[in-house]
Amino acid sequence: MSHPRVMILTGAGASATLGAQDKPLPMMPEWASSLINELGYAAQLLGLRENMPGDEFEAALGRFVSFANALTAIAPLHDLGGKVNVLVSPQTVQHSLDSSVWFRTAESNVQRVQGAIHRNLFDLFNESRVDEGAAYESYGALHSQIRNAFDARPVFLAHVTTNFDHSIEAAIALEAVAANEPRTVLDGFAPSYGGRNETWAPNLLHFATQHDGEIPVLHLHGAVGWYFSDDGTAIRRRPSDELLDERLTPALLLPDDKKDVRLFPGPLKAIWDQFRQLLSNSTHVLVLGHSLHDNHLVDELRESGKPIAYVALTDPDEHGGYQLKKSAVLEAVSKQLRDVKLIPGRFGQRSSISDVDSNELRIWLRDHTPRD
């Protein structure tokens, strides 16, 4: 039997219950509420509301992202709006609607709002907000379930996440200590500048081929501590427990309901290309805590032809077992990924002895492992 290569894809729901001091990491409704306090009057202009649903939050921030991108695009030609008639006269319009004044004001306000959003994001998702022990209990248990499904055979794991926090990396570090075995996070970063900063290099990230303790971890939308280089062509990483360095530009993709991979900044597009490569080399894809609102992500999953399982929220039944909980998310997932296997579970719930239905997971993993 070929070695199983399991990609674990996670969204905000997978990290929510892994917050330190029993304080959940925010889902999008909570994040929207937090941003209202951070942005003040600007929150009204962006259309943010307390506890707004995730899809509406993505749409609101998406409009802002589109506006910010449009300013960058029109910057070289914004004076076209300040001339009486460029085909007749070079005179500049001298009144309060002068385009250069409008443009400078808009650009300044966009920068202020972006800075506030990034500060808020770094505060909410930095290393100190993650309960490392809870992360290890959840991810460590899941890794064991997957490995146990194949008895003593090597199993290669890879994590892909749209989250900004580092709960996965924290879990793997503690897993190595508990197992007294090598567990290496392959995150694509190599030390530079005396070791304090690290630079992302695609050739350092791959699906492990020599040791099943090497685990790629890929943040599709960037992460806390990530910044673009001065020329915007590379990603540099600093410790994830630091506050935002406002002199630098975070290498992040904010929530946006109209993400277009073709328009991603170069370094983040390279990360997306790495995701495609990992997906191509996977034998299984296991989705946890992800709403699958990102159409470009769903398209890649659907077109990959890989066996996909989705861990769906459950309600406890009278026997203490698992029972799928009907929801709009579950219905949407079933429509988007028609051949998806729904596996009951409540990943990250500390009160649960078993986060994911081990029997259902084992059967799915074994049934979809290619044989030599």
Brief digest:
This protein has 372 residues and is an alpha/beta fold.
Structure notes:
- There is one protein chain.
- Helix 2 (28-39) crosses helix 5 and helix 6 (132-148) crosses helix 7 (167-179).
- The strands form three sheets. Strands 5-8-4-1-11-12-13 form a seven-stranded parallel β-sheet, with helices on both faces.
- The protein has helices at 12-15, 28-39, 41-46, 54-74, 99-125, 132-148, 167-179, 266-281, 295-304, 328-336, 358-367; strands spanning 5-10, 83-85, 89-92, 156-161, 184-186, 189-192, 197-200, 214-219, 226-228, 235-237, 284-288, 308-312, 341-344.
- It has 372 residues and is of the alpha/beta class.
- It is globular, with a radius of gyration of 23 Å.
- 39% of the residues lie in helices and 15% in strands.
- The chain folds into two domains: 5-25 and 131-367, Rossmann fold (3-Layer(aba) Sandwich); 28-125, no CATH class.
Which descriptors apply to this entry?
globular, about 375 residues, 13 strands, single chain, 4-stranded antiparallel sheet, Rossmann fold, 2 domains, alpha/beta, 7-stranded parallel sheet
Secondary structure blueprint with pairings:
Blueprint: E1 5-10, H1 12-15, H2 28-39, H3 41-46, H4 54-74, E2 83-85, E3 89-92, H5 99-125, H6 132-148, E4 156-161, H7 167-179, E5 184-186, E6 189-192, E7 197-200, E8 214-219, E9 226-228, E10 235-237, H8 266-281, E11 284-288, H9 295-304, E12 308-312, H10 328-336, E13 341-344, H11 358-367
Parallel strand pairs: 1-4, 1-11, 4-8, 5-8, 11-12, 12-13
Antiparallel strand pairs: 2-3, 6-7, 7-10, 9-10
